[in-house]
Fold:
Amino acid sequence: MNNFQFQNPTKIIFGKGQIAKLNDELPRDANILLLYGGGSIKRNGIYDQVISALGDRKVEEFGGIPANPEYAILMEALAVIKARDIDYILAVGGGSVIDGAKFLSAAALYEGDEPWDILTQNISTKKGMPFATVLTLPATGSEMNSGSVITRAETKEKLVMGGPGLFPTFSILDPEVIHSIPQRQLANGITDAFTHVLEQYMTYPTGAYLQDRLSESILQTLIEVAPKVLEDPTDYTAASNFMWSCTMALNGLISKGVPTDWAVHMMGHELTALYGIDHARTLAVIAPSHYTYNFEAKKEKLAQYGERVWNITAGTTEEKARAAIARTEEFFHELGIDTKLSQYTDDYEGTGEEVAKRFNERGWKGLGEHQTLQPADAEQIVKMAY
Structure:
């Protein structure tokens, strides 16, 4: 097991009816920006619960954060923060809204001229404006980590940012919110969380027995509850296990003491930036090809995953590893997730070259757990996913 440090300051408030706890947790004198997405919270009753809990606090609303939080729209929200002397952000939504809140938290205190530099220069935010979240869509784990992904439409870029100053102060997780989530988004959430675990697990053995078992248990739980959540989102037991699995998949715990990959995400982000494909679905497109391309480096862990998660016990290490890749792709299909780029766009030719070109322009080298994947490797992986 590798050396590590772990600190996660986010307070989690989990369970039925917990949105009312906003009244206890938010400062009475806060000047709050209420940030949300396309307005579904006004149709499913969550908005009314939030407004009721906020009471007579001073609140400015900003809606319309898109599925991939867009820089230009976030800059409009930043202008509101500065014009209205906002000192606290409350994000009510899924990962995109929460990621947007993290950008605003950093940008509100950023002293440079162009907040986009936070992403392009990989600036770690040590202190941001305080913010809290009410999670409405389990998937990204953004409610309990300090990372964020922001899109800029004019340049077709999707970049990451983060820092120790970007953990939510607290996050409210009420599993009943999934009742009104469309099946497509539920399938995306399951796929996103599943792939988050794989990015931190599917590397090579390092003797981190507990981290492996924690990762495997999250994967097994997602597999178990997936059909139940899709069939009946009102099943509270399934919903609560789904929501908590998504949070545990990316709150930092399972990555400690082990190598991590994240190349799947880096390539997937480019597919979203280029074609607007749902984030989770880009991961399902890239992951099988990535594991096949890097088979020799990953086969031991792939075989372990096959044995422990999918009960694949017959065959050699290589055979079990290849069967594990195939079973993973089959699982995505069972969720209704296509796993080839050509199933999402007719303009896929040249995508591998474009991804490699972008990586080269940014000076990105050494992707993956061994830091050996070059842009040319990314090109081949993307081509394998056509």
